[in-house]
Each structure stands twice: as structure tokens, then as C-alpha cells.
Design brief:
By secondary structure, the chain is an all-alpha fold. It is built from 3 helices and no strands. It starts with 24 loop residues before the first helix and ends with a helix. The chain has a domain of 91 residues.
């Protein structure tokens, strides 16, 4: 009981009809879902913007006098400066932690690769000298 479309992929043409020639859905998906590396300077740009936000927030807070803080209507700008400065500081902290982890993992990867390479070379040498 073999159907006429057995063994052929079912595609956009409907049930049982083969996909048109030249349509490579797997290839299209592979290209569409391929990982994209961020720009090399993304980290530096992000760090610069976060530092700028933190500096602007600090300058905003330095400009305020305690006498002006008695009126609750004046609390909005300093509150925004505190929140923005704290968020930028936290972002800088997280960025630094991420970069340190990444550099450690790279050095571990290099060390592991070097160890594996040395081990492979040693085992290959043992095989060669064992046969002689």
C-alpha cells in the first residue's frame, strides 16, 4: 500500500505534492537562524554610554541644594538622577563581570586545547614507537 507521494517531502504545494525544485527549506532555516556575532566595539560603546549616564546623574545631583529639597515638587529630577545613576552603575558592574568571565573562559579554553593537543601528540608518539 504505497501512496504516490511516499518518500517525497511534503511542502508548501500541499499534502502529497513534492516541494518545487530548488527550494531548500533546511538551508534557508540554517542561514536564517545562524548565530550573529555582535559588533566588536559594542562593549566599548555600551560602557561609554553607561559611564556618560552615570556622570550626568552625578552632575545633576551635585547641582541640587538641600534647601531646594524641602519642596516635594523638586524631588523628581534628583530621584530620576539617583535611579539612572544606580542603573548605569549596575550595568557597568554587570558588564565588567561578564567580560572577566569571558576572558577567563577563553584562557581556560586555550589551556584545555593545549593540553588536549599535547596529549594527542604524546599518544600518537607512543603508537609510533610502540610499533617499532
Amino acid at each position: 500500500m504505497s501512496s504516490s507521494g511516499e518518500g517525497q517531502p511534503i511542502g508548501a504545494g500541499g499534502a502529497g505534492r513534492p516541494m518545487p525544485a530548488g527550494s531548500d527549506v533546511e538551508g534557508l532555516l540554517r542561514r536564517a537562524l545562524a548565530p550573529v556575532e555582535p559588533p566588536a566595539d559594542l562593549s566599548a560603546r555600551l560602557r561609554g554610554r553607561l559611564q556618560n549616564i552615570r556622570e550626568v546623574a552625578a552632575e545633576e545631583l551635585e547641582g541640587w541644594e538641600l534647601a531646594a529639597m524641602r519642596d516635594p515638587r523638586n524631588w523628581v529630577r534628583p530621584a530620576i538622577a539617583v535611579v539612572g545613576g544606580a542603573a548605569a552603575g549596575a550595568g557597568l558592574l554587570l558588564l565588567g563581570v561578564h567580560q572577566r568571565r569571558r576572558s577567563r573562559s577563553r584562557s581556560r579554553d586555550l589551556l584545555e586545547r593545549a593540553e588536549r593537543t599535547a596529549s594527542d601528540v604524546a599518544s600518537g608518539a607512543r603508537k609510533i614507537f610502540k610499533h617499532r
